[in-house]
Each structure stands twice: as C-alpha cells, then as structure tokens.
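User: Can you predict the 3D structure for this chain?
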Amino acid sequence: MPAFSRDQQLRSPVCPAGTQIIGGGYLQPGSRTGALEKLDAYPSVIENVFLVAVNNTSPDCVDLRVFAVCQPVPAPQG
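Assistant: Here is the predicted structure, written as structure tokens:
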C-alpha cells in the first residue's frame, strides 16, 4: 500500500467453484515498519472473498496480504 493511503479496500482471491467463503484474514509479511489502522475485515458471501479496509498512516509503503478460508459447499440432499 502506498504511503499515507487512506481507506484502501483489499480483497482475497475468490474462493474456487464449489466452495464458499467462511472466513479469512490478513498479514503483514517481513518487517513490520509502517503503521496500519484496520477499518474493517469481513467475509463477503456475495463476492465469495474476504475484504479488508485499512489506512496506511506511515510515510512508508506497506506490504499487506489478504487470505480467504473456503469451505466445500455440501451437495444437495435428494
């Protein structure tokens, strides 16, 4: 994320066909330089992704990775 960027909307990869988003999260790999403010973090069932909104309040670019937890959708009983 660029330095001093506000309200950045980040998303995970889309869950594959036959699965549904059930959770997720984010991580800041490497050195932890840079200050982040988490605004929101939640699964979006409609888009089948995990969404994260943050502010980067530091003068440095920050690497942030968003991941999803996907679960197989059960086959319909019939």
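The chain has no helices and five strands. The mean pLDDT is 89.
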